[in-house]
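Quarterly update, task 2.4: magnesium ion-bound model.
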Amino acid sequence: MTEISDMDFKDHKSGYVALMGKPNVGKSTLLNHYIGQKIAAVSYKPQTTRRRQLGILTTEDAQIIFVDTPGLHTGDYKLSQIINEEAEYALMDADVILFVADASGTPDKEDVRLAEVIREKAGDAVRLLVLNKTDLVDLSDAAQREKAYRELLDFDRHIWVSAITQEGRQELLTEIIDLLPEGPKYYPEGQITATYEREIAEDLIRAAAMHHLREEVPYGIFVSVNDYKKRSETLRYIHATIFVENESHKGIVIGRGGRMIKEISTMARQEIEEMSGEMVYLDLKVKVKKNWRNDPDFLRRFGLSHD
Ligand code: GDP
Ligand code: MG
C-alpha cells in the first residue's frame, strides 16, 4: 500500500465485510450481484467456495472489500479443518459481518453453530443479519422467521433481501457503507480481483464439474490451474488438472469417448470467459491422487493449508 495522508480519506469509508452463512443460503449470489462478475462460483451444491475470495466494490465515497467464505464444515477430513480456519480468519479481519440466513427455512443446528463461532471469534465487528430469499417467504411467516434468526446472536441490525429478485439490495449496500469505518481506498479503482482470477478459474472449473457430475463423484474432486497465460491480447491459455480420488472416478469424469470432460470443459471455458472478459483456451486433464483430502503435503502444495 502507498502512503496515505489523513486528507485522502476524509468522508471516505472502507473496510472488510465478511459474508458468513451455511452453504446454499445465497452468499455468492449476493456478492456476484454487487461485483457484477462471477467471482464466487455459484452452484446448486454447497461447498463450492473453498477459500476466501475477495470482491472489491468501489463507489464514489466507499470501498467495500467483501470476503466470501466457505461454509463451516463438520467432516473429519483435514480439509474441513482448514476450511474452518479460513472462515475464522475472515471473521477476525472483518469490520462488518453479514450473517446470511436462508429465511425460507427456520434456523437449524448449523446456524446455531455459526452464531457461536461468530460470538467467540468476531471481536467487535458490527453484526448484520441478512434475511435472504425473501421471495420464497410467505408474509404470514415473516415475523416469526425474523424473530427466530434474531435470537441466534446479538445482531446490531437486520435486513430482508432477495439475492435473486434483488429486493433490498440497494438498502443492504447503504447499510453496509453506513456501518464501515472511515478509511482510504485500499485498492485502485477498477481492480476487481486480478490476483484472484486464477483461483476463481479453479472454482469455476470445479463448479462446472460438479454441475455435470451431480452425485457421481461427490466432493472427491480438486481442481488446480497450472498455467494461466496470456497468449495474445485477446486470448488466455489455461492448463488445469482435475484431481480425483481413484481410477473409477477418473473414468466417470472423462466419460465415454471423453464426452463428460468435454462438457465440463466447455461450460467452464464459457464461465471463465464471462468472468475475465477474455477468450479462453482451456486444456483440462484428469489425474488420480489417492486420498487427497487427507494428504497434508497435497493440501499444503495447493495453498489449502496454513502450516
Ligand atoms: P452460498 O453457498 O451461500 O454461496 O449460496 P449460493 O449463492 O451458491 O446460492 C445457492 C442457491 O440458492 C443457488 O441456487 C441460488 O440461485 C439460490 N439463491 C440465492 N439467493 C436466493 C434468493 O434470494 N432467492 C431464491 N429463490 N434463491 C436464491
Ligand atoms: Mg458460495
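Highlight for this quarter: Residues 259-276 form the longest helix (18 residues).
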